[in-house]
Amino acid sequence: SSDFEGGKPNENSQFVNHPSHTLLKEKGFTFHGYNKFKMGCMRNRELNGKGNSQEMNTLYRFWSFFLRENFNKNMYRDFRKCAFEDAEEGGGRYGLECLFRFFSYGLEKKFRKSLFLHFQEDVLKDYETGHKYGLEKFWALMHYSKKKYDLEAPMTKLLEQF
To answer: Where are the alpha helices (DSSP H) in 49-152?
Structure first.
């Protein structure tokens, strides 16, 4: 069996005792635990360089899952900022991929207009640098969702190509 089933660590995994797993458990989240975990990840990122930290990848996974159910503006702002920094300055795309999954699955669960606008903006920005992962996640939200969304003109134009 794999360490991750459905994107979350399974109970027999080496990740069960990892701080990110504890924080995702029901009633396992504390800001003290989160801040300690985040600081460790940020230190690891500083040591290894933007886009090259496995601990940051764990933090990106945590943010992607946690924020879907427990939205927090500051956490989200950190997530988005770090993901773009890692991609632009370090070439690491994992943070952006987690961000796009957060948008796609999170917006289907609970629609937030501001996040939907950010999703479109971020997909366009990423597409302009030659990447399609965000566009694929956006397309999937549009295609599989039962909801009807009002798109910004640039996104409508881009989607017409596919």
So the answer is: 54-69, 73-85, 94-109, 113-128, 133-144
